[in-house]
Task: structure prediction
Amino acid sequence: MRFIKSAAILAGATVTALALTSCSGASDDAIDPEADITEQSLTVSIWADYYPETLAADFEAATGVPVTIVNHATNEEVVAKLTASADSGIDVAFVSGQYAQALNEAGLLQELDKSLIPNEKNLYPEALELAYDEGNTYSEPYAWGTTGLCYRPDLTGFAPTSWNDLLNPVPELEGKTTMLSTERWMALPALKMLGESVNSDDPAVLEQVKGQLEKTKDTLLAFDDTTFYSKLVSGEAAMVEAWDGWCNYAIAEDPTVQFVLPEEGSDLWVDTMTVLKSSKNKEAAMAFVNYILEADVQSYVASTILYAVPNQAAVESLDPALVEQFPNLAVDPATLLEQETVVDVGEFSTEYTRLATEIMAG
Result:
């Protein structure tokens, strides 16, 4: 099994100051359920290493539709491409939930034709109740998870339970912890420790967060979004703020590594599949989304990328030995739904950008 080490999991990142310009696209919005999709082709944009290598070939073999997969490193990168012209040439874009929300509000996404996506039935009921798109009108979830503390008990000497363990570490852990630098995720630990929403748009709250982060920064080994798990495995770090799936990469190399959801709570992030309104191949695009939601396909996805999927049928078919090794793969949806779904905070996103910039530069 090949483990992801790229910036793909920045999929969970926040919507920053993006100049989303509404454009209806070059094609008709109408969908023809009787269309011959074998006469169509698809271009799909997704994070590198965030899908099985055989995905395009497998889909073409199953449907007769050729697929070209292009990779983006971040949500910002693909959104910039989608908004640069009336037709980006992309049919299906994988973006995080809050980005899908912003793209839809800009008029760029096609409403999904559920008659062409019968495999939606495989999803957990909770996966149709997500705040950024209740009812999955313009997006379907691909993967989901939360953020917590990934740590080595042999190096911490205790089992952390609170965001305070990271923000105000014991002296023995100073210089042995890392935090995420992605804007909303940099702010998350302090927001939750303060009892505030991960979607806060209160300037006064963000000032409190800034004060805490300025204090915490002096205790950190680094702000790190990509190599934190390697630092944990090597022993350079003892405890890191981590997305649950990415913590699995550390567990794969060192089974003693643990993941904990802090008692103050955390976030629920979702990576989604969307169909562009500008697509000239909407029927094939719907078929692609439906294919991904097949139980065996999403089970293969989960076992490949080591991130939880919101597909009940897929989770129930996972190899028990894999779930025993990586318990996060079978996280209880109710536990995830207890966390706050990350949503677009509109123009206030620039304040999170400013906060992160000032903390990193200070």
Summary: The radius of gyration is 20 Å. DSSP finds 15 helices and eleven strands in the chain. The chain has two domains: 7-144+269-331, 147-265+344-361. The longest strand covers residues 267-275.
